[in-house]
Design goal:
This protein is mainly alpha-helical and 213 residues long. It has 8 helices and no strands. The longest helix has 41 residues. The protein starts with a helix and ends with a helix.
Length: 213
């Protein structure tokens, strides 16, 4: 019974905000594509410099000289939490709507650039490395960013309508309470993603690096 109720809530939510979800997903994918295009626009010397630092990093991974898993977990969790925290604050600031969209685009661009550079420089091996180093945690992180950005855009639009058009009659305190709880739940998912990045990805990367060397 509860499962069906939750499913109905999710379906209703997706139906009500489908246009915003579509816009946010398309914007994120545009960022990914732009990031991949930027790789091709780099000069040969820039690519050589980046690949040198990348090789140094892979050497450290192979030798087990990277930061401890606990440090990686904290770095990943704090970075992503600050990112969605900023998106959340911008959502209730009324004037933050364009910045939310820019942050989402930048997130997509970083993912696209990282994967694009690895594939551009290392071919199939680069694809394998991106698959084990970038994708595992991003299977959670990307949906969290898309959903939280959608929530932030939605509440921002509601705040704008409330402030300037007087069209929203929903009490603001319960609405903000749900919004905060939503972002706290997103934070828990980011903790799981940080765990994957810290405790699973390095060992996967090491096995792939050792196999391609």
């Amino acid at each position: 019974m509860k499962k069906k109720m939750y499913q109905n809530v999710v379906v209703t939510h997706l139906r009500e905000h489908s246009s915003i979800y579509l816009f946010v997903i398309v914007l994120f994918l545009m960022g990914v594509i732009f990031g991949a295009i930027v790789v091709n626009s780099l000069s040969f010397s820039q690519k050589e410099d980046l690949y040198y630092y990348l090789s140094q990093f892979f050497g450290q991974v192979s030798n087990g000289k990277i930061a401890t898993s606990n440090d990686l977990f904290l770095q990943s969790f704090m970075h992503n939490s600050k990112y969605i925290g900023l998106i959340g604050l911008l959502g209730i600031s009324i004037i933050g709507l364009p910045i939310i969209l820019i942050l989402l685009f930048i997130k997509g661009m970083v993912v696209g650039f990282t994967v694009g550079f690895l594939v551009n420089q290392m071919g199939w091996n680069g694809f394998l490395l991106s698959f084990v180093s970038v994708l595992p945690q991003n299977f959670l992180i990307i949906p969290v960013f898309i959903v939280t950005a959608t929530a932030a855009v939605t509440i921002s639009l509601k705040m704008i309508k409330r402030q300037f058009m007087k069209k929203i009659s929903e009490p603001i305190i319960p609405m903000l309470g749900k919004y905060v709880l939503f972002f706290l739940a997103a934070g828990l998912l980011l903790a799981v993603a940080a765990g994957i990045e810290a405790y699973l990805s390095p060992s996967l990367m090491k096995s792939v690096i050792d196999s391609v060397q």
